[in-house]
Design brief:
mainly beta, single chain, 140 residues, Rieske Iron-sulfur Protein
Length: 140
């Protein structure tokens, strides 16, 4: 799914549908606007969501052990630097700094048996909760 001008990809194929079991996560790079974002996809109770792998308090990675993002009970995403807890379905920080701010959502699309990640909003904000992977058909 390269950009229409050929300058940069607008999406990256990250995994096959059904490949990531509930409670699992996977990191992936995403080329956007001439740079590369460190991102991750998660399966929380059967729904896929993806975020930029960066705490909204301090620009640190969220995986406290390589590719481990969930708290031990699987209820929240944990930033190990200051203990921030984020809701997996919305990316909203509910405890610790930066309480009330959300992770940058990475839109997902299901197409031809694959999950594709799209570049997030360039503003760095997260205006709306991320949507689970949605089905997309046809060329383009």
């Amino acid at each position: 799914m390269p950009g229409s001008d050929g300058s940069r990809p607008k999406a990256a194929r990250i995994l096959r549908c059904g490949e990531l079991a509930p409670g699992q996560t996977r990191k992936f790079p995403l080329a956007c606007d001439g740079g590369e974002l460190d991102c991750f996809v998660l399966n929380h109770r059967g729904e896929l969501r993806a975020y930029v792998n960066e705490c909204r308090h301090v620009p640190m990675s969220l995986d406290w052990v390589e590719n481990r993002f969930f708290t031990s009970d699987g209820c929240f995403l944990l930033c190990p630097t200051h203990g921030a807890l984020y809701e997996p379905t919305s990316g909203l920080c509910v405890a610790g700094p930066p309480c009330g701010r959300s992770l940058r959502a990475v839109p997902l699309v299901e197409r031809d048996g694959w999950i594709w990640a799209l570049c997030p909003d360039a503003s760095g904000g997260s205006a709306a909760p991320p949507t689970p992977a949605r089905r997309r058909s046809g060329p383009g």
